[in-house]
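Example for tutorial group B:
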């Protein structure tokens, strides 16, 4: 199984009841009863020269606003997905960048839920 499929599987196992396909009872209690769909923000990727300027956060917000009608929740698993070059081979730098990415998602209103899954209620 490739990394993308594994990430989506973790997200699904964390949020959805395997028998019904609906949100688990615990997740349902966290979310207002508005909409039924789940929007998964799987990847936000910027070319290297544009990174570190807050554009990822701004563009993600724009995408969410356009795609969220009818959604009860928006979910993501923030972290590094695009490993290019030698810059992130150092563990401290890896942790620093992952923390910065998670903080960007939190500025949009995402809250850590569990298993590295973050949730946002469109309301």
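The residue assignment follows.
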């Amino acid at each position: 199984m490739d990394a993308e499929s594994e990430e989506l599987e973790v997200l699904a196992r964390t949020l959805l009841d395997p028998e019904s396909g609906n949100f688990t009872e615990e997740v349902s209690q966290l979310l207002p009863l508005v909409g039924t769909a789940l929007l998964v923000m799987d990847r936000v990727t910027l070319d290297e020269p544009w990174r570190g300027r807050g554009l990822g956060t701004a563009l993600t917000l724009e995408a969410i606003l356009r795609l969220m009608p009818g959604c009860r929740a928006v979910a993501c698993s923030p972290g590094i997905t695009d490993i290019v070059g030698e810059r992130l081979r150092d563990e401290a730098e890896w942790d620093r960048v992952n923390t910065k990415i998670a903080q960007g998602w939190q500025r949009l209103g995402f809250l850590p839920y569990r298993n590295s899954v973050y949730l946002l209620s469109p309301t």
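The first helix runs from residue 3 to 15. Compare this with the pattern of hydrophobic and polar residues in the output above.
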